[in-house]
Design a protein that fits this description.
The protein is of the alpha/beta class. It folds into two domains: 2-114, no CATH class; 121-311, Rossmann fold, CATH 3.40.50. It has helices spanning 2-13, 67-74, 77-83, 121-134, 153-168, 204-216, 255-266, 284-298, and strands at 20-26, 50-53, 96-101, 137-142, 174-179, 219-224, 240-245, 270-274, 309-311. The strands form two sheets. A six-stranded parallel sheet has the order 7-6-5-4-8-9, with helices on both faces. α4 (121-134) crosses α7 and α5 (153-168) packs parallel to α6 (204-216). The termini are far apart.
Length: 316
């Protein structure tokens, strides 16, 4: 990034502003996009934002067309020429494509593309600090979004508590909870932590199940620290502890919580996840945590006591 910023400065000093175009590849075209922090450093004249709506199924066979080819075509020089709205003669090339894409699963057929990017050192250092303070602890991933039937939530909560209590063996143990349920519970500022989990979808069964958990065991969660926004601690129960996280961005970037939660969960002594389809949702997020924990465990980690386990409905 430093090299790119230096290049922008050199172009500005030479009075040769680079030509840019914004390209977004989204799940839905009405997705609210973050502000482009480079919008004042490039010339976007005759270059309106290019938008492509493209589904993101995890299974490659469910995709319509070759996603690698679709991306390459969308980013090609030929497409840039077709989208140019100025005079048709002597079309200037685009120097910088400002790309925004909403993808959770692999879309490039290349071995090097499967190598995950490393997280910023500031987030890994923060995760180390949180994990050190919580140790010994179990990380629990409980995703409630669209779980049905809702009657399963309470027995799932009971099984979760039983699992944690079995791990603790009568000794103090901290619980780090990763969930899309509102981290501010039912306070005046509560809202689901997942963009796809709507406030109106929260039912009494969700509240009852989570209440059972924090009345039986003490849980710790992260919450986004927004400028000027005060956390209503007086509205929270004693078994519910929050760690405010500064995203180091304006406006506050809620995606940072997912990064921190994942990094902390990877460092936990134990990890629990809800049984897919019954007490939880299968996701790439969970699989990434399990993959990293297994890798560390098999490499001889002395921190990880058990790579993973699941809490599930009692057998009938």
């Amino acid at each position: 990034m430093e090299d790119f910023q230096r290049w922008l400065d050199e172009r500005r000093q030479a009075q040769s502003i680079p030509i840019g175009q914004e390209v977004s590849i989204e799940l839905t075209k009405n997705t609210p996009l973050p502000d482009n922090c480079f919008k004042d450093m490039m010339d976007f004249t005759y270059r309106p934002r290019s938008q492509l709506e493209l589904d993101d199924p995890e299974v490659a066979s469910h995709r319509k067309g070759n996603y690698t080819e679709i991306f390459l075509d969308r980013l090609s020089d030929e497409t840039r020429k077709l989208e140019y709205t100025g005079p048709a003669t002597d079309i200037p090339p685009v120097d910088v494509i400002n790309l925004y894409y909403d993808r959770r699963f692999t879309f490039i057929k290349n071995k090097s593309a499967n190598t995950p990017l490393t997280y910023s050192a500031q987030w890994t250092a923060l995760a180390d600090q949180i994990a050190e303070k919580l140790t010994p602890f179990v990380a629990v991933h409980w995703r409630m979004e669209r779980l049905e039937p809702l009657q399963n939530l309470m027995p799932c909560a009971q099984r979760l508590v039983e699992k944690v209590q079995a791990l603790s063996r009568g000794q103090p143990i901290n619980v780090f909870l990763l969930t899309d349920y509102p981290h501010l519970l039912m306070t005046s500022k509560a809202k689901p932590e997942s963009m796809s989990f709507k406030l109106e979808e929260l039912q009494q069964e969700h509240h009852d199940a989570m209440k059972f958990v924090y009345e039986q065991i003490n849980v710790t969660l992260t919450t986004l620290q927004r400028p000027g926004d005060v956390i209503p601690y007086n509205e929270l129960p004693p078994g519910w502890s929050l760690i405010p996280i500064d995203s180091m961005a304006y406006p506050a970037d809620s995606s940072v919580l997912g990064i921190i939660d994942k990094l902390v969960a990877i460092r936990a002594q134990w990890f629990l996840a809800g049984e897919p389809g019954k007490c939880g949702k299968a996701s790439s997020f969970t699989r990434r945590i399990i993959y990293e924990r297994l890798r560390s465990y098999q490499a001889g980690s002395t921190v990880i006591q058990e790579p993973m386990d699941i809490f599930k409905l009692p057998r009938k």
